[in-house]
Amino acid sequence: xxxxxxxxxxxxxxxxxxxxxxxxxxxVALAQKIGVARNTVQARLNRWGEDDVLLPFERRIxxxxxxxxxxxxxxxxxxxxxxxxxxxxLSQVPEVVEVHGLSGDADLLIQVVARDADDLYRIAGxxxxxxxxxxxxxxxVMRQLVDYRLTQLILRDS
Length: 158
Hints:
This protein is α+β, with helices and mostly antiparallel strands. The chain contains 6 helices and 4 strands.
């Protein structure tokens, strides 16, 4: 997670909107589109890169294209004192695409992808077999009802 001290200003908002519409646009084209100097765009992009503002490109790849059409969330209870070891082990499971630490009844929310139901069963078993994992509950994503989105926030706050 980025540790951003300042929030986006109006130039950031215009640049983010332009990038969301055309992520492969050249710096000169972006500068023309939002009405600033090329160096301003370059400086913003450089700063965002240093501050981890922009998420990795791989978040835009559909796992189904890679042969993993099933997506599931594994809600997990763990021994807190083993959290670092558990995280390290989960990062070695290729089908684990994201892990969030939670407060409340569950400790981890693990997003996994699978080739089919048998593959998902294997992956869930692998997670349950991690030392320190006490209990899991797996829920299959049936369909995505709202796509990942931030444009509405950029527009609201700009």
